Amino acid sequence: MTAMRVDVKVVMLGKESVGKTSLVERYVHHRFLVGPYQNTIGAAFVAKPIQVGEKVITLGIWDTAGSERYEAMSRIYYRGARAAIVCYDLTDSSSFQRARFWVKELQNYEEHCKIYLCGTKNDLIQEDRSLRKIDYHDAQDFAEEIGAQHFETSSKTGNNVDELFQKVAEDYNSTAFQYMTGKTKLAWLRLLQAACHIFTDSPGS
Ligand SMILES: Nc1nc2c(ncn2[C@@H]2O[C@H](COP(=O)(O)OP(=O)(O)OP(=O)(O)O)[C@@H](O)[C@H]2O)c(=O)[nH]1
């Protein structure tokens, strides 16, 4: 097995049973597993290359266990993450409280981690609007307050799932230069300068 170089560490956070594993399954394997719910123990990792313009960016996705029993462990997994997908279940108001908890944690301990707020299971809302427990605008306001992107997804139908992960990769791509260390940035600038010289000095230009 060859090791894959990971560009962005992404962590999935949220109350148990909100659908973190299902989101990853849908995105990575294009499937929705039916059958008895199996809670994640500890965490699971998967690497997924994704095309952004001309580039391929590999997301390293950590799917954490939502059970409060594993809270201390989940903290280990968000260390150094560049993106966090904080999930809540649109049909469960307590899951939104839990999402607020994870957002606070990230704001306090992982300030460079970009947050994506994700309301899951929107197929259930499409079927029966009375099941919605989190108003779209309330969640949107919260997302704006914390500077996060907000998505409502369904792993069952696939609605908005690719868009969510694509956005994570695109955001990383557009900010990657910003996060380069001084030395790397200088090297890139010199390379660009040299390329410009070659272009302007080339015969016929
Ligand atoms: N209808 C519907 N059910 C979903 C969706 N996503 C997840 N579920 C169901 O919700 C239950 C929990 O899903 P998981 O993906 O295992 O949840 P989790 O957040 O990974 O749970 P933990 O591992 O305990 O943290 C399962 O029975 C899923 O089938 C969805 O988009 N629509």
UniProtKB/TrEMBL annotation:
SUPFAM superfamilies to which the protein is assigned, alphabetical: P-loop containing nucleoside triphosphate hydrolases (SSF52540)
Classification via InterPro entries: P-loop_NTPase, Rab24, Small_GTP-bd, Small_GTPase
Stated family: Belongs to the small GTPase superfamily. Rab family.
Enzyme category, top tier: hydrolase
Entry function: The small GTPases Rab are key regulators of intracellular membrane trafficking, from the formation of transport vesicles to their fusion with membranes. Rabs cycle between an inactive GDP-bound form and an active GTP-bound form that is able to recruit to membranes different sets of downstream effectors directly responsible for vesicle formation, movement, tethering and fusion. RAB24 is an atypical RAB protein that presents low GTPase activity and thereby exists predominantly in the GTP-bound active state. RAB24 is required for the clearance of late autophagic vacuoles under basal conditions.
A Pfam family reported for this protein in Swiss-Prot or TrEMBL: Ras
Membrane topology of this protein: Lipid-anchor
UniProt feature coiled coil, ranges: none
Reactions catalysed according to its record: GTP + H2O = GDP + phosphate + H(+)
GO CC field: autophagosome membrane; cytoplasmic vesicle; cytosol; perinuclear region of cytoplasm; spindle
Recorded name of the encoding gene: RAB24
Main location group: cytoplasm
Swiss-Prot/TrEMBL cofactor(s): Mg(2+)
Domain of life where this protein originates: Eukaryota
GO biological process, one term: autophagy
Enzyme Commission designation: 3.6.5.2
Protein name in the entry: Ras-related protein Rab-24
GO MF entry, a single one: G protein activity
